[in-house]
Amino acid sequence: MKPNKKELKQNIKHALIREHGLGLIKFFGLDPNLVSPVELCKKLRKLENEAHKITTALCNGFPDLDHDLQEDYIKHLEERLDKIEWKLRDYLWANQVKAKKDFKKINAIFINGDPRGYALKLDTETIKYFEELGEDFPHQDWGGYGILAPDLTSDIEHKANWISSNWKELTTGTLTDYKTDLIERGYFVC
């Protein structure tokens, strides 16, 4: 039976968040017994939203404040960004198993100050280095930076529409093998 669109989107959302979280757990060498992939993504998404609001405010400026107040407020916001970055790093480092990757030394996690993109990122050099070792980062932007907390809304919509549009082929046609993969990933239940 073809799943309704709302249920399908919920299943896909949960599956994509879980997959991203599992990818982060694997990449960062986190202890899967201590870290839930969904909770990891929720925590990172909250930090992403907080950092993005601050970077947007910094980019837009504060024309209503006089110069001295602007400098103080900018300093305050930059300190908040530093706290977010350290929360992020502390969380990822504290939950590592004796890691083969010492991200404390790599120092690859950073906050992108350009509000047109994601705030919480992993640098391209680190991504390239680990790709050469055969390890992929779960989500990257066009510039090759790792995105720690992506908004998966458009992916959910796209996948739900594709499944709905191709339901007949998934159930009776040439895409039945792909259907099995989608079921295993938790996109829908038959």
Tell the overall outline: globular
Low-confidence stretches at least 5 residues in length (pLDDT < 50)? none
- Tell me the helix content: 55-70%
Give helix and strand order, one letter per element, not per position.
Answer: HHHHEEHEHHH
Q: Total helix count?
A: 8
Radius of gyration, whole Å: 20 Å
Class by SSE composition: mainly alpha
Number of strands: 3
Question: What strand line-up does the widest sheet have?
Answer: 1-2-3
Q: What secondary-structure arrangement, pairings included, does this model have?
A:
Elements: H1 5-28, H2 37-60, H3 67-94, H4 103-106, E1 109-111, E2 120-122, H5 124-132, E3 146-147, H6 153-165, H7 167-172, H8 176-184
Antiparallel strand pairs: 1-2, 2-3
Task: Describe what this molecule looks like in 3D.
The chain has one domain (5-184). The mean pLDDT is 88. It has 190 residues and is mainly α. It starts with a helix and ends in a 6-residue tail after the last helix. The protein has a 3-stranded antiparallel sheet with strand order 1-2-3. Strand 1 (109-111) and strand 2 (120-122) form a beta hairpin. Helix content is 62%, strand content 4%.
Descriptors:
190 residues, 62% helix, mainly alpha, 3-stranded antiparallel beta sheet
